[in-house]
Design goal:
161 residues, alpha/beta, Rossmann fold, 5-stranded parallel β-sheet, 6 helices, 5 strands, 19% strand, globular
Amino acid sequence: MTIALIPGSFDPFHNGHLEVVERAADIFDEIVVAVLRNAQKSEAMFDLDERRDMIAESVAHIGRVRIVSMTTLLVNVAKEVNATCIVKGLRVVTDFESELQMAQMNRSLSGIETLFLPASSSRSFIASRLLREVARYGGDVSHFVPPAVERRLKEKLGQES
């Protein structure tokens, strides 16, 4: 059985993330989405449990997806879930530079390979930090996030549905 591990902070989970999970589900037998708190990023809008719940609702139509929280090295999580590959989405060239270094480090530490999936051009500009900013100022993010995420963003920000 092939298992893909898709890590990320997913704060919030958006349609670009969903695309990566859906496309990976066409390639692998099972998908494990690992939600992490990235200390290098600003304060999270949603806690880990909220992000896990949003992702679970957003990927329910896929089936073979499991969601875990990550508090250790990615390669340790990969080993724990028996991942055969790490899958990362790429939006722009700058994503590739940092993701390549991480992929090389992960392979050096554990031998696990990383598969890069380029984002569709219609989603390549979507970034969680931009969505948080647009949503905070009352902008419409409904075209960029699954309905479960849109609902939770509005609840979090005290906006009417």
